[in-house]
Write a structure and sequence with these properties.
heterodimer; A: about 375 residues; alpha/beta; Rossmann fold; Alpha-Beta Plaits; 14 helices; B: about 350 residues; mainly alpha; 11 helices; about 65% helix
Chain lengths: ~375, ~350
């Protein structure tokens, strides 16, 4: 597999820390430690409470999908895809949409990109209303919707050139640079019909970023990508945000990706916005509930001790005792057990996963 | 405006750079060549036989007009006495009245009635170059319309079904501008092909056929008669074709607004190819005049038989077509503007 080995080299400017739009911004050279920075456990506390400067504003967007003639009659029942969703995404924010299949993530993204006409509500970008001026709105937006579909009988290059011309034209050199960034240089002149799913995703990403959008909308951008590809996309998104202040609206099923990449995550379920959580809130939420597994000589006594002292839920299974700890220093629990003469053989702490949080919120 | 120009040129490029488009054109040319050859062969076989003229009888206008008048009187008597019930598709009366008018026109202007042909016909199998261009235009225009149907179906319903439309709609271009550009590109491509064909046929006619072109007689439902130069008649045919082309593009996209790409291709193609069968079915319903296709062949409104529906003229055909066109355009643009692309 040629493309696979090619990926392994990670020679793309993104992976090697190059600039996304070199000809626009010749001296960027950002440090390559964003990952560590973003994952840092304790950023300044005020950062969390900071007011976001709303850039993309979605207000009360509703959409009901109806079939056939029912489309003309808004009172007829249909499938409710979005039910009064309101969101504000700040400039330069990486905003994630999380929700189960059919929750309305894709519909919301399609409303923002003008593919689905909402029944009610408005979408504005930096004060520009979509309905009032689609051209001005969309000239600031780059979008990749689901698995991108291109003209299969034409080459990747033809497709990019076609889409670039449709939005007013771009210099060939810029398109070439973008192709290199997404790592498709060697196959760009082959017919898209011969591309693998991952290559289509890369081409889709290329067409989304080639116009240097202010808002990048990505619907499941890492579906079908190999681990190197995922890492490249992650780096690319960060770099676009850090170097160009690009705002990113991004949906994925891959929870880890959300957790590492997004500044804030919106949880959507059954067409409704359930919660919006910042990265910090998610991290804290995950820290809030801890499952403690204690192996000791008398789990039943330990259980009653813990329940009476702290009120935590416990469950005994043979030698093991499971405790659901909320906001409490587990070391103190250990001390308490030992002080009461219980022989603790092992003491395991497991944080709640994002998956569990996701299930709770979108239930 | 700038958006339209860009989208229009891109769509045109897309059409002209598609392999299928050129294969189709070569196929049309081969077909025309075969039709030409068969007519040339029949013409050679019939050398010396007199099959010429509007009537094929060789009789002069004075004699003919008497015969037609007598036939018309008999026919009208039968209608009056109830022996004949005039159906919507019965054009006997119109044919006789128009024939009489043409004969009278010929007598008045001293023209030999056998030197004229109706629009869209040829004077004889011994074709002149004008006849050749005339006939080839008819044949090729039909196929150019079919080509336009195929491209239209692919351009709208096809791109929506494939998903390639999604990419185009996320560009900063208004939906109606994109649709207009797509329709315009198919229309201009069709016209370009038709003009290229006509140029080729004119060259071919001059090379392979002899003789001067035959004048064309036009007659409307009110027995107004005009005789025009054959090349003017070809131009008129071309104008009618342009209307037919635009209407077929709109019709295909109209169907495509409601069905998937297979239906958007199949329904207009079948309707277009079997228009006469459908017209026959419609003639006896009592409402044939509302049909789009029965009223799209404007040239028939200028022949002796007149409009395919009794009581209608080319002018009413134009009006019905215009109503259809406006209605379909309104539906197409409204549906496309409100359409959700999943």
């Amino acid at each position: 597999m040629q493309e696979f080995s090619e990926l392994g080299k990670t020679t793309s400017p993104v992976a090697s820390g190059g600039d996304v739009f070199p000809e626009l911004n010749p001296a960027p050279e950002q440090p390559d430690d964003e990952f560590a920075e973003v994952c840092a456990e304790d950023p300044a506390p005020e950062e969390e409470e900071r007011e976001i400067d709303p850039y993309l504003v979605i207000k009360g967007v509703s959409k009901v999908f109806r079939k056939g003639a029912a489309r003309l009659d808004k009172s007829k029942p249909g499938i409710v895809a979005l039910d009064g969703v309101s969101l504000e995404v700040g400039k330069g924010e990486i905003f994630g949409l999380l929700g189960p299949n059919g929750a309305g993530k894709s519909t919301l993204i399609k409303v923002v990109t003008g593919l689905v006409i909402p029944d009610g509500g408005s979408v504005t970008l930096g004060g520009l209303d979509f309905k009032a001026d689609k051209e001005a709105f969309m000239s600031k937006v780059g979008a990749q919707i689901e698995t991108p579909v291109f003209f299969n009988k034409r080459s990747g290059w033809w497709n990019l050139k076609y889409l670039a011309d449709l939005q007013g034209g771009l210099p060939d050199q810029r398109i070439k640079d973008i192709v290199e960034i997404v790592g498709l240089t060697e196959r760009i002149n082959s017919r898209v019909g011969t591309y693998s799913m991952g290559m289509r995703q890369r081409l889709g990403l290329a067409q989304a970023i080639m116009n240097k959008p202010e808002l990048l909308v990505l619907d499941e951008p890492i579906n079908g990508l190999d681990p190197d590809g995922i890492a490249q996309v992650r780096d690319l998104i960060r770099r676009l945000r850090d170097d160009y202040g690009t705002t990113v609206l991004f949906s994925s099923h891959i929870l880890n990706e959300m957790q590492t990449l997004c500044d804030r995550v919106a949880f959507i379920s059954k067409g409704k916005l359930v919660a919006v959580k910042t990265k910090k809130q998610i991290a804290r939420g995950l820290g809030e509930t801890t499952v403690l597994t204690v192996v000791c000589d008398d789990p039943k006594r330990a259980a009653s001790l813990i329940t009476s002292a702290y009120g935590f839920r416990t469950k005994v299974q043979g030698e093991r005792l499971f405790v659901e700890v909320r906001n409490y220093n587990v070391a103190k629990i250990n001390r308490k057990l030992v002080e009461n003469g219980i022989e603790v053989e092992s003491f395991t702490v497991k944080s709640r996963t994002l998956e569990e949080m996701y299930r709770e919120l979108t239930r | 405006m700038k958006g339209f120009v860009t989208a229009f040129s891109l769509e045109s490029k897309k059409i002209f750079s598609s392999k299928g488009f050129w294969i189709f054109i070569v196929a049309i040319l081969v077909l025309c060549l075969m039709v030409t050859l068969s007519f040339k062969m029949i013409g050679d076989l019939m050398e010396g036989m007199d099959d010429s003229g509007l009537t094929g009888s060789g009789a002069d206008a004075g004699q003919l007009v008497e015969v037609y008048r007598q036939q018309l009187d008999e026919y009208l008597q039968q209608v009056e006495s109830g022996q004949i019930k005039q159906k919507p598709g019965d054009t006997t009366e119109m044919t006789l009245r128009n024939s009489i008018a043409i004969c009278e026109y010929c007598i008045e202007h001293g023209i030999d009635v056998n030197s004229l042909v109706a629009i869209g016909s040829i004077s004889s199998f011994n074709m002149t170059s004008g006849d050749f261009v005339n006939m080839m235009s008819q044949v090729s225009f039909t196929f150019v319309c079919i080509l336009a149907i195929v491209i239209s179906a692919r351009t709208l319903a096809g791109e929506i079904d494939d998903g390639t439309m999604r990419m185009q709609l996320t560009r900063p271009i208004k939906r109606y501008v994109l649709l207009l550009a797509k329709q315009g590109a198919v229309f201009v491509a069709g016209l370009t092909v038709a003009v290229a064909f006509m140029a080729a046929f004119m060259a071919g006619g001059a090379l392979f056929f002899e003789g001067t072109a035959t004048d064309v007689v036009l007659v409307d439902a009110y027995q107004n008669v005009a005789v025009i130069n054959p090349y003017a008649a070809i131009l008129l045919t071309f104008l009618f074709f342009a209307v037919e082309l635009a209407t077929m593009i709109q019709f295909t996209m109209f169907i495509g607004s409601f069905v998937n790409k297979t239906g958007a291709l199949a329904i207009p193609l079948v309707t277009y190819l079997f228009v006469d069968t459908i017209a026959l079915l419609l003639y006896n319903t009592g409402l044939p005049w509302i049909g789009l296709f029965t009223n799209l062949n404007w040239a028939s409104g200028l022949t002796t038989a007149g409009a395919p529906v009794r009581g209608m003229s080319i002018y009413t055909m134009m009006a019905v077509t215009a109503v259809w066109f406006a209605g379909m355009t309104a539906v197409n643009y409204t549906v496309f503007e409100k359409r959700d692309l999943k």
